[in-house]
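Weekly puzzle thread! Below is a chain. First person to post its structure in C-alpha cell form gets bragging rights.
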Amino acid sequence: MRDDQTLLSGLWYFACLSRDIAHGALLRRIFWGEPVVLGRTKEGEAFALFDVCPHRAAPLSAGRIVESDQGGPSVECPYHGWRIGARDGVCAAIPALHSDSAFDSSMIAVRRFPVHEENGIVWIFRPEDTDRTKAAKPAIAPPSTGLPPSFRPQIVTVAQAEGPYDETVIGLVDPAHTPFVHRQWWWREGAGLQDKVKTFEPTEFGFKMPAHRPSSNSRIYKMLGGAPTTEIEFRLPALRYENIRNANRFILGLTAITPEEDGFARITHMIFWDMPILTLLKPVLGRMSANFLAQDGAMLREQNKNLSRMTTTPLYVGDPDEPAKWYYRLKRAWIERPPSGAFVNPLAPATLRWRT
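Winning reply:
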C-alpha cells in the first residue's frame, strides 16, 4: 500500500507566491530534492531552471539576470560568467572562450521547468524525463483557483513538515485527526464528537466531497452568516481546495504541499475571499490560521520521531481511513498509467461514515 519513496512526476506543484520573486531577481529553492532557481525577467516573466551551472556546478541563483537584445534574458553564473537562457535553459555565451573559438555553446543546456502564474501563485511542473538537458512539455493544465485574475491570497501561512512525504499529504484528507490535533475556541474546543455521513465522488485527478452544509460543531462556519455550504476537493499531487459559500460571498482555502529535501516538505495554506468584514479582521485571522497549521506541523514532527527510527505498517481501520487508501490508489494509478495514455481515475462514488 505504501509508496513513500516515490514522488510523482508529470504533475504541477506549488512553487512560491508571485510576490516572492521580484523583477530581475533570482530565488533558490529545493524541490523534489533538486536545486531549482526561480526568477523573473525585468519584463515580469517568471521562469525556473535547474540551479546548477553545467560548467563547474556553481548555483546559478547566486548570479544575476542579464538582458540581451539578441538572445533574450539569461542567468549569468557568478563563477565564470556562463550565460544560461532564462526561457530555454540553453547556454547563450561562454565569456572565457577566445573570440576565434568555433565552439557552439548552444550544445550545452540545463533543464528548464515549465511554470504557470495565476492569482498570485507560481506553479512549477515536474517533468517525467530525468534528462536535465531537455525542456518538458506539460501534458496537463496547471491547477486553477477558478477565481478572476485580480484575486490574490488574503492570508498565507507556511509550516515545515518532517517525515515521509505521503504521511504529510494524507493529512490533507484525514478527517479523524481534526478534533484531537486542532483545539481552538473558534473551531471545535469543547464540542463533542458527532456521527458524520459524507458522500464523495471522483474528479479528474482526485476526489471531492460535493457542496454540503458544514458540520454544526465547527464554529468558524457560523461566523459567515447566511446558510453556507462547503465543498472539499483533493487533487494530485498534494492539493486541497475548500470552497465555502453563502448566498453572496465566498471563501476559498487552498493548501499545497511541496516536497523539498528528503524527509522535509513545505505546507502552504492560502485563503482567498471577497468578504470586506474578513479583510478588516485579517491580522486576527492570520494568527488563527498560523496556529492551526502549526499544530499539523508539530504533530508530523512527533510522528516522525518513530517513523525515522523504524519501518512500520499502518493500520487503516474503517471509513475514517478510507481517504488515505484512496490517495495511495490514485498515486499508484498515476505511476502505472500508459506513457501516452490518459489518466484513468480508479475511484468510484462512495459514502463514508465516521465520528468527528
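Puzzle host: Confirmed. Bonus trivia for everyone else. The chain has two domains: 11-126, 155-355.
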